[in-house]
C-alpha cells in the first residue's frame, strides 16, 4: 500500500515543475543535442553523451526524488541514492574511461534503442496531454525519472557489440519499481517504463554477440 495517492503524485509533479521551470526546456534541448550526437558522432561524442545522461540522473535523483518525493515517501532517499550511483557509473565508465561505443548496428536492439529515445522525447510527454493531463504535471526528460530512464535505456541499447549490463541494471530495476507504483496508482501511461525495461532485458539477451 503506497503512502500517497495518484492525486498527491500529480500535485508533487505540479509543485516540482513550477519550482524548477524553465529547466524542463533546458533538459529537453539537452536531450535533443544528445540525439544529434548519436546520429552524427564526432570525436569524443560518446563521452559527452554519457556525461549528459549522468547529469540527468544526478539532477533527477536529488531534485525530484530526494528533495521532492521524500515529502510523502521515505523510500525516495533510497531511490535518490540509486540514481546517484547510476550517475557515477555513467561518468566513470562512459565519460572518464570511454568504455561506451554508441554506434549501434543492424540488430533489433539498436532499432529499439532509437525508438525508446524518440519515445522519451516526443511520445511520453505528448500522449498525457492528449488524454487531458495538465502540462504542469508532466514528467520531462532530464528532470524527472520515467522519461530519463527510458532515454537512458534507449542510449544503452545503441552500444556497439553488446549492451553494458552494469549500466543497464539500475534503469531496469527502477523501471520495475516504478511500474509497480504506476499500477498501484492507476497511472497506466507510466507502465510504458517497465515495458521498456523488460524489452531491454530481452533484446540484450537475444542480441547477437560480435
What does this molecule look like?
With 210 residues, the protein is an all-alpha fold. The chain has one domain (6-206). The chain is 70% helix and 0% strand. Helix 3 packs antiparallel against helix 4 (76-96), helix 5 (108-130) runs antiparallel to helix 6 and helix 5 runs antiparallel to helix 8. The longest helix is centred in the middle third of the chain and has 23 residues, at 108-130. The model has no long low-confidence stretch (mean pLDDT 91).
Number of domains: 1
Main sheet overview: none
Number of helices: 8
For the terminal residues, how far apart are their CA atoms? 45 Å
> Helix coverage percent of residues?
over 70%
Backbone structural class: mainly alpha
In terms of topology, how is this protein built?
Layout: H1 6-20, H2 23-39, H3 45-66, H4 76-96, H5 108-130, H6 145-157, H7 165-185, H8 192-206
Helix pairs in contact: 2-3, 3-4, 3-6, 4-7, 5-6, 5-8, 6-7, 6-8, 7-8
Describe this protein with a few key phrases.
210 residues, mainly alpha, 8 helices, 0% strand, globular
Amino acid at each position: 500500500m503506497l503512502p500517497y495517492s495518484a492525486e498527491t503524485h500529480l500535485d508533487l509533479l505540479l509543485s516540482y515543475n513550477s519550482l524548477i521551470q524553465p529547466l524542463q526546456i533546458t533538459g529537453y534541448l539537452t536531450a535533443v543535442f544528445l540525439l544529434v550526437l548519436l546520429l552524427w558522432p564526432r570525436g569524443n561524442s560518446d563521452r559527452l553523451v554519457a556525461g549528459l545522461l549522468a547529469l540527468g540522473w544526478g539532477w533527477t535523483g536529488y531534485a525530484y526524488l530526494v528533495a521532492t518525493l521524500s515529502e510523502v515517501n521515505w523510500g525516495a532517499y533510497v531511490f535518490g541514492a540509486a540514481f546517484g550511483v547510476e550517475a557515477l557509473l555513467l561518468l566513470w565508465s562512459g565519460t572518464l574511461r570511454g568504455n561506451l561505443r554508441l554506434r549501434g548496428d543492424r540488430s533489433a536492439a539498436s532499432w529499439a534503442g532509437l525508438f525508446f529515445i524518440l519515445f522519451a522525447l516526443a511520445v511520453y510527454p505528448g500522449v498525457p496531454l492528449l488524454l487531458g493531463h495538465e502540462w504542469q504535471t508532466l514528467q520531462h526528460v532530464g528532470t524527472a525519472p520515467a522519461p530519463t530512464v527510458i532515454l537512458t535505456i534507449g542510449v544503452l541499447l545503441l552500444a556497439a557489440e553488446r549492451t553494458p549490463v552494469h549500466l543497464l541494471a539500475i534503469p531496469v530495476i527502477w523501471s520495475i519499481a516504478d511500474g509497480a507504483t504506476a499500477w498501484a496508482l492507476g497511472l497506466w501511461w507510466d507502465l510504458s517504463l517497465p515495458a521498456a525495461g523488460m524489452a531491454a532485458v530481452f533484446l540484450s539477451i537475444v542480441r547477437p554477440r560480435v
